[in-house]
Every structure is written in C-alpha cells, then in structure tokens.
Amino acid sequence: MAAAAFTTCRTSTTAPHSTKIRFILLQNRQGKTRLAKYYIPLEESEKHKVEYEVHRLVVNRDPKFTNFVEFRTHKVIYRRYAGLFFSLCVDITDNELAYLESIHLFVEILDHFFSNVCELDLVFNFHKVYLILDEFILAGELQETSKKAIIERMGELEKQE
C-alpha cells in the first residue's frame, strides 16, 4: 500500500512591518495647534480630543524624561523647539531615535526655508509648511531624508509660483 505524502504550506498572515506615522502635530505651549496632519481617518471631534490629550501629555512632562511617551496603544515622539512642540504618533514598536531625527530634520528644513523659522511663519505660511511636510512625509511614511534634496525640490516649486 502506497502512503501519500502530504505537505503543508505555511504562509505568513502578517504583513511586513511598515513604519507608519499616524499623525503629526505642531503645538505651542498654550495648546494651540499650528499644524495638524493625520494619516489615519479620525472624526473631527476625535481629532480635537487627540490634540488636547497630546498637548497635556507633552507640555507637563519633566524635561529630564525621554522625548517619547506611550499614548493609548501607540507612542508619541516629541521635541520642543523654542515655544513649539513637534509631536509624531507612531506604532509602539517603531524606532524612537529615527523619528526624533526626522523631527530635527523637518525643523532644519523649515529653518532653512524661512530663514530662522518662528511660530508666525507657520501661521501665515501654513500652505508652504504643508508642502514641505508632503515632500518629506507622504501617506504616513518617510519619503525623503535628504535635506539637500528637499530644499532643491522646494526651490523648484518656488520658481513655478
């Protein structure tokens, strides 16, 4: 009697790990949101609730602590520059230091583009800030990490205006 050989095929049901930013917030010390970009769908009321919670989380945090903190089932990575808090919400397993570097790169690009950026630059030129952000991060994923490439691209876009 011949025995039939059975083989099982294993397929992974988990998708490859992708580093996805859930949202980016730029808030001042008083809690006013100067820039908010969400890469996940949220109701308007939920967005306001998230902004309030994130602000309370980062503004009251002791500067001696790290710049990342758990937030719901994710984590918020933030950095303070002058009176502004730059906050990113990412997956709990993502690399915090890579996102801290990303925040710093974004600030360097803003600083270069606006020649010593301040909060009023973000308020009155919000469309340009969103344009810079879209060159840097697209659909919640880091697209370009070269400061030179982003600045060159922004220069090209400026010429077209």
Automatic annotation (TrEMBL):
Subcellular localization(s) per the UniProt record: Cell membrane; Membrane, Coated pit
Stored Pfam families: Clat_adaptor_s
Listed GO MF terms: clathrin adaptor activity
UniProt KW keywords: Cell membrane, Coated pit, Endocytosis, Membrane, Protein transport, Transport
Annotated InterPro entries: AP_complex_ssu, AP_mu_sigma_su, APS2, Longin-like_dom_sf
GO biological process: clathrin-dependent endocytosis; intracellular protein transport
SUPFAM superfamilies referenced in this protein's UniProt entry, alphabetically: SNARE-like
Cellular component terms (Gene Ontology): AP-2 adaptor complex
Membrane topology: Peripheral membrane protein
Annotated ranges, domain AP complex mu/sigma subunit: 21-160
Family statement drawn from the similarity comment of this UniProt entry: Belongs to the adaptor complexes small subunit family.
Protein name from the UniProt record: AP complex subunit sigma
